[in-house]
Amino acid sequence: MQSIAFKPVGKVRNDFNTPDDYRKIKTKPSYIEVFDAYEDALLGIEENEYVEIIYHLHRSDYKIQTYTNSRPDVLRGVFGTRSPSRPNAIGVTNVKLIKREHKRLLVEGLDALNDTPVLDIKNCDTSLFAYHCDHNPVHQSKLKVSPRIDMRSLIFGAHTDILMIKAAAMHGHYCTGLALGILAAVHAMNILEAESDGMEDLLAITETNNCFADGIQYVTACSFGNNALIFKDIGKTAFTLTKRNGKGIRIAAKSSARQVIRDTFPDHNRLYEKVVAEQNRTPELLAAYRNSSLERAFGTLTLPFEKLFEVSYPKTEVPSYAKVHESVICSSCNESVMITRSVLVNSKPMCYVCGNQTYGVIDGNGIKCS
Ligand SMILES: [Zn+2]
Ligand SMILES: [Zn+2]
Q1: Is 98 exposed, middle or buried (CB count within 10 Å of its CB: 0-12, 13-18, 19+)?
Q2: HSE-up of residue 281 (Cα within 13 Å, Cβ side)
Q3: Cα-flanking dihedrals φ and ψ of residue 172, to 5°?
């Protein structure tokens, strides 16, 4: 077998010149001095709170089996251990990046000796754990740089079931409306290959304010709060996702979609009749109704898309970016109010409430004036 040669990209600098307990070495910060030729490879590295250091265990011996610190009585093959004595003396450690000083990285958690040749530095890969490791500090630091990193893989991997579980944390319950919103939004995001950073470059126009709209908001990150959600109060289970150039996709529930769902889950209809229509609320019936609602909501996610939705590609008129307005203090209630929502009464600014002005309200019944 041909041998492979590596050229170090840098060196470790710390106070440990002779082999010592790796746990002790890990507690002290180390510097990694990157060689001049690789300075450009450090561009942007400070965005990572954690990095992976690959290095040559230059002082280690070679063993094929070894005893470990945690089980000194059990002989193991090195491939099942992190022992430094191995066929190819390569060490890999995830470390915390404290700071970058030009070509030097100050790191915490490295267990390498002074002068250790560093072979590579990488951003940590936690993709395997991404779905269930929100508490993992390495993953958290990635989320700080890119909060939608997990959403992206869920959307482009069409993991609608996981998306519904997450969306239900906002929506409060599972239902077919939420499921339809998730299906429509995932489809639209995939067709447009859309990324969303909540900066109004991607806009969602919902034509309803029912459960469907929450699936749309959660998946697209076009929300009420980031001005990327537009509400057309026309009572249709439909939405348009568009980029700023007006090229978008409209997805509307087919008029037959409701019947398709009913026909697929006939037991649920019987329970609905008893529990909701006839108000027969025994604990057994209520529990059965809850279970069948859950089954129907998740089951809806597995129905063929074309049986539920109609797709079109209209040219959409996109509003300009939302303006940031100054605030004034209402001369009556003393609360700060956006200048565009204030009125002058006897030359003094007042909020709409104190100034007895009408203003728009969106509630469960739609948009209306106060
Ligand atoms: Zn709902
Ligand atoms: Zn006021």
Answers
A1: middle
A2: 3
A3: 95, -25
**Spacing, Cα 164 to ligand 1 middle (Å):** 11
Quote the ligand 2 centre to 336 CA distance (angstroms).
8
- Per-residue pLDDT reduced to its tens digit, 147-164: 998 899 899 989 999 999
Task: Tell me which residue of 364, 338, 369 sits closest to 351, measured CA to CA.
Answer: 338
Nearest to 103 by CA among 36, 25, 186: 36
Predicted model pTM = 0.73
Kindly identify the ligand whose nearest atom is closest to the C-alpha of 341. 2
Q: 337 CA distance to ligand 2 centroid (A)?
A: 8
Could you say which ligand is closest to the alpha carbon of residue 179?
A: 1
Of the listed ligands, the closest to the CA of 164 is 1
Sorted by where each starts, the structural domains of the chain and their CATH numbers stand as 10-130 (2.40.30.70), 157-322 (3.30.1330.130), 327-369 (3.30.60)
The pLDDT tens digits for 43-100 are 999 888 889 999 999 998 889 999 887 777 889 999 988 888 999 999 999 999 999 9
d(CA 12, CA 73): 32
CA of 189 to the centre of ligand 1 (A): 21
